[in-house]
Design brief:
The chain is an alpha/beta fold. The protein is built from 10 helices and 10 strands. The protein is about 45% helix and about 20% strand. Helix 3 packs across helix 4. The longest helix has 19 residues, at about 80-100.
Length: about 270
């Protein structure tokens, strides 16, 4: 398949995507941008790249659709089990201890870059299982992909997508249908799915836990630092940050402290 973009056009789109989202395209993943733009031009019935560029510069909705199309939404339930072991056996007990003498017993969690919802639903099922009264929780789940958010909001997954869900959770928190599995309403009600571009500061504050796994790899160092600083501002004292197992804050000038538990490594806002 021949390339759609000239070098000048590639540079033009690469710069506007970076400015709008922090997502970086290099020569190594140029073909992804090329193929996604071909799809958008075909969907819009446009003949030239310049015509489409003019459209995204004048339409916020089309810009959102472009950013949606260039993101990769790979996820699954209980992805990287050691992270959830640390969540269950270390993070939640520590937060419960902190909140023991406080009138506010709610644990606030953000699943940033939640894709199609498997991560926030995993978090919700674990908390439904282990969190005793009077403690409660709420989960904000966000993504830049509107298509992915719609899947998460619907909470329906074909059988091939529920691999990794323990049987006790599958029986308790899902309803089997001929087409697949529907997340039960009592789990769905604990999660608020919403569009959010990590380039921008979140409005939520006092978050106890932020999951942002396998998202930073799409950003360059400057954009990564900007996102991490946004998290810091949004998080409560003595809160916890999860990033992907192949991602690291090493060498970045952040205020987060590295935390090694018996199960997994994560980061802590410890003030």
């Amino acid at each position: 398949m021949s390339e759609l973009l000239t070098n000048a056009e590639f540079d033009l789109f690469r710069k506007v995507i970076y400015a709008e989202s922090g997502i970086t395209f290099s020569e190594t993943n140029r073909s992804i941008l090329d193929s996604r733009l071909k799809e958008r031009l075909r969907d819009k019935g446009m003949a030239t790249v310049q015509e489409y560029y003019n459209l995204i510069m004048s339409s916020k909705e089309e810009m959102k659709l472009l950013l949606d199309s260039v993101t990769t939404n790979l996820t699954r339930f209980f992805r990287n089990q050691p992270h959830f072991d640390a969540f269950q056996h270390y993070v939640i007990p520590h937060l419960m201890e902190q909140k023991k003498s406080s009138p506010d017993k709610k644990i606030r969690i953000w699943s940033a870059g939640c894709s199609t919802g498997e991560e926030p639903y995993t978090i919700a099922m674990i908390l439904k299982d282990i969190l005793p009264p009077p403690y409660g929780f709420e989960i904000m789940a966000s993504d830049i992909s509107l298509k992915s958010l719609m899947v998460g909001k619907q909470g329906f997954y074909p059988e091939s997508r529920i691999t990794g869900v323990p049987d006790k959770y599958l029986h308790r928190f899902f309803t089997k249908t001929p087409e697949g599995y529907q997340v039960n309403a009592d789990v769905m009600s604990t999660i608020r799915f919403d569009y959010h571009n990590l380039k921008h500061m979140p409005t939520t504050r006092n978050l106890d836990i932020v999951f942002c796994r396998n998202v930073l790899i799409y950003f360059d160092e400057a954009a990564q630092l900007e996102v991490i600083n946004h998290f810091w501002e949004a998080m409560a004292p003595h809160s916890y940050l999860y990033i992907g197992h192949s991602e690291s804050l090493f060498g970045m000038r952040t205020k987060f402290e590295f935390l090694k538990t018996d199960w997994a490594c994560l980061y802590q806002k410890n003030i």
